[in-house]
Design brief:
Oligomer: single chain
GO molecular function, one term: chloride channel activity
Helix content: 55-70%
Membrane topology: Multi-pass membrane protein
Shape: elongated
Structural class: mainly alpha
Strand order of the largest sheet: 1-2
Keywords: Ion transport, Membrane, Transmembrane, Transmembrane helix, Transport
Subcellular location: Membrane
Pfam families: Bestrophin_2 (PF25539)
Number of helices: 8
Length: 346
């Protein structure tokens, strides 16, 4: 058994929020609450154990006439195994693709931020004005807001739950202690109550900034085109995440899988009772725990954008990106060595 690594971290450690910062107190084999699936399958396991006990009791009363040949178990287990393999492989593929698309959005935000900060001036012209500096910084903060908008959209956190709307239809996003407080311009209007996602809304000022940068001769035409491609890539990844979130596995398959699991675990006591007697209750509970646990993990990974420990760490990704953007903006404003030609007035 491998031991967990101990990390000595500083609050500015890269990927600080996404990195495990403390060793596990207990081996994973002894974990039954945090991160485990046990609570979700406890009812099913308990019911099958009770049913197995009932079969054992009735078999004793009927002098062993409830038993069926144990040879039926291997043939049924093949079918159950194939269904579970398909279920979990499909669910993990959705989880993995979700991770990749989130990373694509994060990468696009990083690339656009780098270009906006490094190129927000003319190398052979006057330094940018105070208004142009403010325009650049505001745009970079909007880029960061797009990562948060992705997180909240995938979790369905809009409207009254996360972003309370004022009585008029185009509500301001001035929210008390909101994640958007210091990254969105004051007076930004929210169109989510009309069906427009916040991320798509925020792509408009980003595209407009690219056009202004081209007009100011900050970006030459091929570079401006490439920046637009980066923005298009970000929106495409956002759409792919929406597809994963809004397209669950077919309900007919899920119904059939649950029914097959239930029938298999109900047939087990009849096949085991002749040889194992009351021990068949324990074995049935163990097998039900195994099979329903595997299915439960697949259900958890199917839409991996929530708060569970087995889901994508969207909160950590957003906070790490906020730290990175904060350092870049601070160095850009200070005209440090990171930006030798700078984007600030000296």
């Amino acid at each position: 058994m491998t031991t967990a690594r101990h990390h000595t971290v500083d609050p500015t450690f890269p990927r600080y929020y996404s990195t495990r910062t403390k060793a596990r107190r207990w081996p994973l084999v002894l974990r039954f609450v945090k991160g485990a699936i046990h609570a979700n399958i406890a009812t099913a396991v308990l019911l099958h154990a009770i049913f197995a006990a009932l079969v054992c009791y009735l078999d004793m009363r009927k002098a062993g006439h409830l038993a069926i040949p144990s040879s039926v178990v291997p043939s049924l287990s093949i079918v159950v195994g194939l269904l579970l393999v398909f279920r979990n492989s499909t669910s993990y593929d959705r989880f993995w693709r979700g991770c990749n698309h989130v990373n694509t959005i994060e990468t696009s935000v990083r690339n656009l931020t780098r270009s906006f900060l490094a190129c927000s001036c003319k190398s052979d012209g006057p330094p940018p004005s105070t208004a142009e500096q403010a325009d650049t910084e505001r745009t970079v903060r909007i880029l960061l807001a797009m990562m948060y908008a992705t997180k909240h959209h995938l979790r369905g956190e809009w409207g009254a739950s996360r972003m309370p709307v004022v009585e008029h239809r185009r509500a301001s996003l001035a929210l008390a202690k909101s994640e958007y407080d210091d990254i969105l311009p004051s007076g930004t209007e929210d169109f989510q109550d009309q069906g427009l996602g916040l991320l798509l809304q925020l792509t408009i000022p980003i595209e407009a900034y690219i056009k202004r940068g081209h007009d100011r001769a900050w970006f030459h035409a091929p570079q401006a085109s490439q920046l637009s491609v980066q923005l298009n890539t970000l929106v495409a990844a956002y759409g792919s995440l929406e597809t994963i979130h809004l397209t669950p596995l077919p309900v007919a398959y899920l119904i059939h899988l649950r029914q097959v699991l239930a029938l298999f675990c109900c047939a087990l006591p009849f096949a085991l009772v002749a040889e194992m007697r009351w021990w068949s209750v324990l074995l049935t509970a163990f097998l039900a725990f195994t099979l329903y646990g595997v299915e439960g993990i697949g259900a958890q990974l199917e839409d991996p954008f929530g708060y569970g420990r087995s889901e994508i760490k969207l909160d950590a990704v957003c906070e790490d990106l906020r730290v990175e953007m904060g350092v870049l903006l601070r160095e850009w404003r200070a005209g440090g060595n990171m930006f030798p030609e700078g984007g600030v007035v000296r």
